[in-house]
UniProtKB/TrEMBL annotation:
InterPro entries: Cas12f1-like_TNB, Transposase. GO terms for molecular function: DNA binding. Residues 98-210 form the Probable transposase IS891/IS1136/IS1341 domain. It holds the Pfam family Cas12f1-like_TNB. The keyword 4Fe-4S does not apply. In the C-terminal section; belongs to the transposase 35 family. The keyword Transmembrane helix does not apply. Keywords: DNA recombination, DNA-binding, Transposition. Residues 302-357 are annotated as: Disordered. It comes from Catellatospora methionotrophica. Residues 222-289 form the Cas12f1-like TNB domain. This is Transposase.
Length: 357
């Protein structure tokens, strides 16, 4: 393995992990709610107050349904977070994602800059339209420039410069948080109402080379939306169909299938030269994506339905599982990581399974 590599104090993400050890008296070194309910006790550090409610985690620990394995303490953008890794029992059936019965056909999802998302079925019914997405990077650009300028004006290596850099870092974290929240809202809305989504494969890196569009495209974070849709559909047992990137979804008439010449970006209404069909540009594209998926994926491969995602070992022999091993419907967490606790200034959470100190 060689000599250990030490972590630098100047890393953007400072973090360390401590394992939970149990003393001979049976006392765990990482404890939650030892003194006050909203506290976490770490070995060598002591008891620290946390922001997030720890009640469900404490209840699982008390009942032996969860066991703390380790705790990771992270410092990012001025906030401390402790994530507690646990080994927990399987989720109660009521707390799992329910596999849905297929309802509608395919729904095409067109991602754009004017309307962030337009979803429609193959017969032309619009199902969801999200206009006016937040453009956090654009609206924060004035402040970002000022903060970045402030950093370069400070003397290298000085305390002032480090403070200015931290201020800029917090600004970037805020922009990212706004974007992340919005994307989760949109992807949840899509996944909860549609079990079959068709999404075009975009060459986002290619679009970023267009300097007139690059900033807007990057701010829209379409790639992250696709990533969230992929894993959230898997949770729910739904399907996400990537549409061939060369399929002309914006140029094709969704009524008569005639492929027109390229439509300029500024033209918001699609008009078919052959049959006179007129529709919103993004709606027409979304309908075309749905039609493509209907044609190419008439029979869909069944994805594994969203059962409990858990790494918990059965423990206590291999006999049949009893109800006592299962978490209750009110117990903490979605499966992979049990929620820790959050603390700090009363602000929005960074993530669900993290604890802000
Ligand atoms: Zn037409």
């Amino acid at each position: 393995m060689g000599f250990p590599r030490f972590k630098s104090k100047k890393r953007a993400l400072l973090s360390f992990r401590v394992r939970c050890k149990t003393s001979t008296a049976g006392r765990a070194s990482i404890r939650v709610g030892d003194h006050a309910p909203r506290t976490v006790t770490l070995p060598g550090i002591g008891t620290v107050a946390v922001r997030q409610d720890t009640r469900r985690l404490r209840r699982m620990l008390a009942k032996g349904r969860a066991k703390i394995l380790s705790a990771t303490v992270t410092h990012r953008a001025g906030r401390w977070t402790v994530s507690v890794t646990c080994e927990a029992a399987d989720l109660h059936a009521a707390a799992c994602h329910q596999p849905r019965t297929p309802t509608t056909g395919w729904v095409g999802v067109d991602r754009g800059l004017t309307a962030f998302v337009v979803a429609a079925t193959a017969d032309g019914t619009p199902t969801l339209r999200v206009d006016d997405p937040p453009r956090p990077a654009r609206s924060a650009m004035v402040r970002q420039r000022r903060l970045a300028r402030a950093v370069t004006r400070k003397q290298r290596g000085s305390r002032n410069r480090a403070d200015a850099a931290a201020r800029l870092g917090r600004h970037h974290a805020r922009v990212a948080a706004i974007r992340r929240r919005f994307l989760h809202e949109v992807s949840n809305k899509l996944v909860k109402t549609h079990d079959r989504l068709a999404i075009e494969t975009l060459t986002i890196t290619g679009m970023l080379t267009n300097r007139h569009l690059a900033a807007a495209v990057a701010d829209a974070s379409w790639g992250e939306l696709a990533r969230q849709l992929t894993y959230k559909q898997q949770w729910h047992g739904g399907h996400l169909c990537p549409v061939d990137r060369w399929y002309p979804s914006t140029k094709t008439c969704s009524a008569c299938r005639t492929v027109a010449a390229a439509v300029p970006l500024g033209q918001r209404v699609f008009t078919c030269q052959a049959c006179g069909y007129r529709a919103d540009r993004d709606l027409n594209a979304a309908v075309n994506l749905a039609i493509w998926a209907e044609q190419h994926h008439a029979r869909v491969r069944d994805l594994p339905a969203g059962g409990p995602v858990t790494k918990a070992r059965r423990g206590k022999g291999s006999g049949p599982r009893t109800r006592a091993d299962e978490t209750g419907p009110d117990d903490a967490g979605t499966a992979p990581t049990p929620p820790g606790v959050r603390h700090g200034r009363p602000r929005r959470a960074l993530s669900h399974n993290s604890t802000e100190l």
